[in-house]
Amino acid sequence: MLRIAVPNKGSLSGPAAEMLHEAGYQQRRESKELRIVDPVNEVEFFYLRPRDIAIYVASGQLDIGLTGRDLLIDSGADAEEILPLGFARSTFRYACKPGTIGGLADLAGKTVATSYEGIVAAHLAEHGIDASVVHLDGAVETAIQLGVAQVIADVVETGTSLRNAGLEVVAEPIMKSEAVVIRRTGSDAEDPKVQQFLRRLQGVLVARTYVMMDYDCRVEQLEKAVALTPGLESPTVSPLHNEGWVAVRAMVPAKEAQRIMDDLYDIGARAILTTAIHACRL
Fold first, then answer.
1. pTM to 2 decimals?
2. Which of 119, 129, 230, 268 fits as disulfide partner to 124, beta carbons 3.0 to 4.6 Å?
3. Which CATH number is 90-176 given?
């Protein structure tokens, strides 16, 4: 069986389980379950702490895992990203008291507090900055107030928490993270079971991004309509009973669906419908 590590808690857990369910895999019914077997799909899932997943995958005891890019890099484990999953996005930034740090070079000689020591140390080394890194678990905003550090490095979404703590973001982002699928570095990239798993997840990603659009239009407007809905390869066009009319079907980006419907209506298309895509293979 394919052995897969899945986050057991935190912001990664729920979306990961939902994506796996959409991909047709059995998931646990209770949060206390640490292991389940999906015999139909020949997969065994292990529910682990998100921070530990890269370590388990790198050891070779598990074939692949779902975790955060930040956690993969921070672990320093001998594992690599093979598929971004598009959820749990975050940005890592430096922050400090207003007016104390102008840019990245000003971090030299300072102490940086963070929960992601591996990421920060690697970033500083990459830019030749000689600074100390202090590891703290949990919220790090108070580290400056208590004199533990002059700078913090943490996940920044809206920046509200930082402003409430009297801090401001400085320098360029350290990195952008999201949920990813990982494997042990150097493992078989063409493993059929792994490839099938990846195809299923890619199918979910596409299904979430596109909708199926159907509409009727007159033959003389078909070229204009097809230009608006080219599909992936090309749209499906079928003649209707009424002469001079055709039915068109194509996948379109979900974010653009309403605009495309307006443009189709303006050129004379009618009976314009969109339907959700639950699964696909490209």
1. 0.85
2. 129
3. 3.40.190.10
